[in-house]
Amino acid sequence: MATFYAHLPFVRVAGFTSFQLPALRLEIAQLPFDKWEKMDGGFAGLRNQESRYHASAPVFVIVSDAADFEAVEKMVSLAHLAVVLGSAARVPSPQLSMQYLVSGRSVRRSIGPFAREVLLYHSDTVRCVIDELTAARVVKMSNLIVAATHVLSAAEIQFAIRSLNRGALTGVSEMGNVALCLVAAEEIVMGRITNQLTATFSRRAGVLMTPHAHLREKGEAHARDLYRLRSCFLHGEADAEILSDETIISSARYLLVRAVVATLAAVTNGLLSSDSVSYFGELLDSAANTPLLREQLHEAMPR
Questions:
Q1: Which of 21-35, 210-224, 248-262 has the highest mean pLDDT?
Q2: Which pLDDT value is given to residue 98?
Q3: Are 125 and 238 in contact (CB under 8 A)?
Q4: pTM of this structure
Q5: Listed residue (225, 103, 78) closest to 161, CA to CA
Q6: Phi, psi (5° rounding) for residue 106?
Q7: Taking all residues of the chain, what is their mean pLDDT, rounded to a whole number?
Q8: Domain residue extents for the chain
Q9: Which of 62, 155, 204, 243 is the most exposed place for a label (fewest CB within 10 A)?
Q10: Measured distance CA(6)–CA(54) in Å, rounded
Q11: How far apart are alpha carbons 156 and 268 in whole angstroms?
């Protein structure tokens, strides 16, 4: 039986070495050096590699029954998406790093653009630490993704996933990531709206910022600041105050993650049909004035 191993770049686990994603029938685990050495023996045997490996503590997505390679690639991609949605971290795709298909003594290596660089030589760069709480969110996201797989093909969601992945590339700055996330979030939240843009974005995105109706004004004010930040990027507007606000900047990716998760949850919970994702903004309008609906949308979101 073949087993597939895909390295998750810049990810660590804390408090345990592995956990299962039952919905995807796979495992996320920190591999011991001796296991990796068997898969990449020629390279692993070079000087100081073991100490580098232990310092990096690489984490892999592991698919035990890897007979159907196309299906395995899709499962790994969905597991990566679950990690991204469950953590909101800038985790690059496993396709950019090392992947191994092991069948008996046979090992087939797939070398991405990172090669072994991130796997071994970036122990000081950790973008996502998966502790017990984060692992539980990742499991929850994998369940939601499997239940709403058909929604992932919607144009708005595809654009959001591409933006999350592009924003995680090592050559993209934090500000570049923020710009990608805000444009993609706007695509989901705004739909076909072409006027009263700031007010509409603030109201709708404000719903995603907080589950509490009594904090509506605070959530909408935060969303308004995010829209100002978007304008700084897209129109070259100089707004020193907003560009120096770390809280606003750090929440841009979080907003996009919440928009994706809330859309998937809305479809799986029957609040939105799978062929009407473009109407998600109107659902947010209703939620802005309906505390119960607002809470329903937040139930699936990572805390």
A1: 21-35
A2: 96
A3: no
A4: 0.92
A5: 78
A6: -85, 135
A7: 90
A8: 3-139, 149-298
A9: 155
A10: 17
A11: 17
Chain segment 125-184, per-residue pLDDT in tens: 999 999 999 999 999 999 999 999 999 999 999 999 999 999 999 888 877 888 899 999
Say how far apart CA 69 and CA 4 lie, in whole Å. Answer: 9
Q: Quickly list DSSP for 50-73.
A: HHHHHHH--EEEEES--SSHHHHH
Instruction: Please check whether residue 83 is in contact with residue 91, taking contact to mean a CB–CB distance below 8 angstroms.
Output: yes
Q: Are 123 and 36 in contact (CB under 8 A)?
A: no
Q: Name the least confident of 188-197, 239-248, 257-266, 273-282.
A: 239-248
The CA distance from 235 to 86, in Å, is: 32
Edge-to-edge strands of the sheet including 26-30? 18-21, 26-30, 59-63, 3-8, 98-103, 106-111
Report residue 150 as tokens: 């058909």
d(CA 148, CA 206): 24
Give pLDDT, residue 250: 76
Task: Please count the other Cβ atoms lying within 10 Å of the Cβ belonging to residue 223.
Answer: 25
| Three-state secondary structure call for residue 79 | helix
